[in-house]
Request: fold
Amino acid sequence: MVALSGPRLRALRGEDVSMIFQEPSSALNPVFPIWWQIGEGLRAHRPKMTRKEIRAEAVSALEAVGIPDAAERIDRYPHEFSGGQKQRIMIAMALALGAELIVADEPTTALDVTVQAEILDLLRDVRDRFDTSLIVITHNMGVVADLADSVAVMYRGRIIERAGVKELFAEPREEYTKKLLAAVPHLGRRSAWTALSEEQQQEIEEAPPVVVAEDLVIEYPGRLGKPAFRAVKGVDFTIRAGQVYGLVGESGSGKTTIGRAIAGLERTTGGSLQVLGHEMNGVREKAFKPVRRRIGFVFQDPATSFNPHLTIQECIAEPLIVHEKALSAGQREQKVRSLLEAVELPGDYARRYPHELSGGQRQRISLARALVLEPELLIADEPTSALDVSVQATVLELFRELQQRLGFAALFISHDLAVVDSLAHRIGVLFRGDLVEDGHGPDVLQRPQHDYTRKLIASLPVPDPAEQAKRRAAFAREWGSGAAAS
Reply:
């Protein structure tokens, strides 16, 4: 491959080797319908194909990956499909030219666990049905245990260990591999609620509430005569001072909408939402501005939430300039440096720019910025979903330590149940805008009452090939093989 000419490489791409990219939303062109994008590769390799033939091939490719009503949906655009469906379309594009090898780069990173289970099942089906080889690039050891036959572990540009999947998980040789496996969160192994003493549990239960939602409704207005979309459908929950409340659910369930409403970034349309003693239903921005300084927000992707033109010092200090106008430049600089030390980064990082930091370092900076005003409530929206397991473990441990030391309440939004179990004292499960389960971590995750919660737990891949094979078989018996496209 290294010595091949450009034309020869072009001939290989698609017909012999295809690629499934990590983020289908950025890999798909928003201005062209799906059939045209599947046909792009077909036209490049088979220039004599007619429009009718290309559309027929596109329908066959979508049907092969389980997209319902494929003949009608090939004329739709990427934004009209869910995240899981877009990833299925990427797989269909990879299959369109009959590639013998598919390289899947983090194919499930941005997906919730139920859709992830379906995509893994689809990749397994593609492998068996079309006799296609797969190279799966991932930091999720549960995905490795679920899908791989053999595993290569890379560290700083070198493959340091290669073994069969069962052998590697049972007897890793390299120290880095051992650390990688040890960093994977396991459901029920380190529950945040059971780690507390009875006195600490009682203290949290008796603490005053900082957020109270009663019959909360949030709607997005309809357009062009269409009815309003109800994203949150009358939910009730309470977050108390010093408590970490985990909110889990699939994409589109309303998790982020609730978090944004608590921060005053989304309007509530019904019921009641009390945040730090202020009613959010009908609140005016001028009245809420003094409250906003008491709330911190950690965004999912720090790379897009930082201004690339500002240094780290300026990014962290920005809330101080808005809310603490009496502070001098020297006092702001001192505050920023102390926060950098709190998130375990050197003080001289203040002079760097966001692009000069790794993903884990940027997420630490995001945490520092959220804490700069010493908030009483922190909202963390999927803060570790894009991080590899070792970096994720470090960020989670830092979050846990800072929460215990500073005592802020937190809403932790995630689709990773094992991560939520390790951090949250209480967990709420959202399903299509309804809060279907609410309780302490062990009660919700070990004794689930709702069928959707049981499906979420069963969908979660575990980093043990033998156990994961049993879980996959049990999931197929209970809910089917994941043939329905989500």
Notes: Residues 198-459 form a domain with the Rossmann fold fold (CATH 3.40.50.300).
